[in-house]
Amino acid sequence: MALKQTINLKLQQKMALTPALQQAIKLLQMTRTELEEELTQEVEKNPLLEDESLPSEESEAFSESGKYEEQEQREFSSEEILGDKIDVEAYFEDYFETSQKYKGISYEYSEEGGLEENLATKSETLAEHLLWQVRMTNFTPEEMRIAEYLVGNIRSDGYLDEDLAKIAKELNCDYPAVEKVLFEIQKMDPVGVGARNLSECLLAQLNILEPKPLLAIEIVKFHLEELSKYNAEELSKILNKPATEVEEAVKIIKNLDPKPGLIYSDTQNFAIIPDVIVEKIGNEYRVRLNDEGLPKLRLNRYYRLLLEKGGFENSPETVSYLKEKLRSALTFLKSVEERHKTVYNVACQLVEIQKDFLEKGPSYLKPLILREISERVGVHESTVSRVVSNKYMLTPKGIISMKDFFATGIQTIEGKDISQQKVKSMISKLIEEELPEKPLSDQQIVSILKREGILLARRTVAKYREEMKIPPSSQRGKKDRLNKGGSHES
Questions:
Q1: CA-to-CA distance for 108 and 158, rounded, in angstroms?
Q2: What b/e string do you get for 386-423 counting C-beta neighbours within 10 Å, with b at 16 or more?
Q3: pTM
Q4: 85 contact partners, CB below 8 Å, separation of at least 6
């Protein structure tokens, strides 16, 4: 039988930029202060990046010598320098000689009410972050009860130790119902939280990637033990796949987070610096990203032109090193740009939906959940959660947490939705206007709200009242009743 060479086309999906995806996720969940530190550190460790607002010794030497002056008019080609095709010119043209897009406005903070007065806020715990997301979902009351119980049993590293059958028994519900809610929690931010073992944790993170890395999923599902003793050739034999494909899949797995909850273990205080600035111009609101004080990154002109000119012909190691740093710089710039775009797009949608909230106050907050914003922006719900966590808007009404733009809805008798915040405002107003000698009981408040078309259980009214730190009727009213104690209504 004669051997002959043939050319075959094979269509294949690959997660080619998974490290970039992981970097983008990391940047997205950073606070404004953390982002500033990350940008500064990246400039320090990558010679192909520079802060355009700071003088560069290489750039000054470049300008003084004029050695490569004739190259300045020539367009930069990443393909020419790197020796392979990377489609970056259109995406990164702003980084070659100028700074990033989405420049925020310069904003002067007065001594009265300035940023210094908005320091010392405690970062969220994992449980707080998960409970907020749980309440921003379409869970039924029963699913909400299960979710709150599950969150209360998740360890600080993100894992769930409790047996689901035991939880179902304690909650007096079906096992499938508990499992369904748990899988929904595992999709929340940080993805993989609530897993019962390492395999489940990693699979949750792999399953949200598009396109799905099928080989990586197969390895995590069935060959996690072999992965711990990783040998590309042996694993490729077991999987009956080329070693290069196995290495690519393993690279994806290595970029996953085996203990996703630990990112919320740091409870140190941080400064509140707004990521977004909202200005009212006429009757419209203008949204801008706040880049004030952030390093404005661009590619170092000196090194990239030396690469293009072939200034390191006698040092292949240097060329290889600089090419790798150029790839890293381009990936980092893209991740920063993606962060800016996502935060900007989410902020625009929040402002558009909640104009009445900005105009008239919290009682005009419309019901809004994560899914609605994720569908408008075209990203996963967990991404929206990362965007709004520990991020703030500077508005004409002051600095507002981006989480405050969300509110779960309560359906009225007419079928309309109103926000919990508005219902709380109504309860607060009723109590403010009550007669001191005849304070309203929670049941009386239920009856008054029902006449307004709002159906609430007595325990819900009590819960809202307690959240607003309003005492029960037995402790309100005449002063001589305040010292009688008792935390429950008679």
A1: 41
A2: bbbbbbbbbbeeeebbbbbbbbbbbeeeeeeebbbbbb
A3: 0.63
A4: 79
Domain with CATH 1.10.10.1330 in the chain: 126-263
Distance from C-alpha of 196 to C-alpha of 199, rounded to nearest angstrom:
8
Q: Are 221 and 204 in contact (CB under 8 A)?
A: no
Distance CA 346, CA 374 (A): 8
**Better-scored residue on pLDDT, 304 or 161:** 161
The 10s digit of each residue's pLDDT in 315-353 is 778 778 888 888 888 889 988 998 999 999 999 999 999
Is the torsion defined by CA of 467, 472, 477, 482 positive or negative?
Answer: negative
Tell me the chain's radius of gyration from C-alpha atoms.
28
Q: Are strands 276-281 and 284-289 parallel, antiparallel or unpaired?
A: antiparallel
Where exactly does CATH 1.10.10.60 map onto the chain? 414-481
The span from the CA of 274 to the CA of 399, in Å, is 7
Name the 3-class secondary structure at 395. strand
Residue with token string 């994560």: 370
**Residues 417-437: tens digit of each pLDDT:** 677 777 888 888 889 888 888
Judged on CB neighbours under 10 Å (0-12, 13-18, 19+), 141 is: exposed
Instruction: Indicate the fold that domain 126-263 takes in CATH.
Output: Arc Repressor Mutant, subunit A (1.10.10)
**Does the 414-481 domain belong in CATH 1.10.10.60?**
yes
